[in-house]
Amino acid sequence: xxxxxxxxxxxxxxxxxxxxxxxxxxxxxxxxxxxxxxxxxxxxxxxxxxxxxxxxxxxxxxxxxxxxxxxxxxxxxxxxxxxxxxxxxxxxxxxxxxxxxxxxxxxxxxxxxxxxxxxxxxxxxxxxxxxxxxxxxxxxxxxxxxxxxxxxxxxxxxxxxxxxxxxxxxxxxxxxxxxxxxxxxxxxxxxxxxx
Length: 195
Description:
Oligomer: single chain
Low-confidence stretches: none
Largest sheet: 5 strands, antiparallel
């Protein structure tokens, strides 16, 4: 039996990725940018549900669950908001750009995904869903002063909030962790509003 590290996500279009790249490049000019493990713009996606390691035999039933989740949600628009981080700017661990636009259908879709994969043995997230696009993860060895310096820069970065994209499908993705970074492959794509 083969196992796959999998997650459910919305893949981004080139316009959104270009805006994220521009925002990321502003931060990379910082003298402390070396503390970040930067996500390549073509790899950035909006994760709705992390599934972990699954047997490859589960791809089809998960795909069917996603079809049910997508059936009642019509395509909708998302945009970018400002930059932020988890847990806070004093000691950032993850740097992200927020997601705006038509948030109600996005939240509805995320709840539907949770509800449909739960019977397959995937526990609902305990934390509330905060839609965000990860730009970087801060390396564990980063000094507190470096974290603080990078965290303080976030409010100065200009994000192009005028760009939007229409979400028309949901993807089941495979994540392969490699020394050069994670490589993502789409396993299943499901159109929204199939009913």
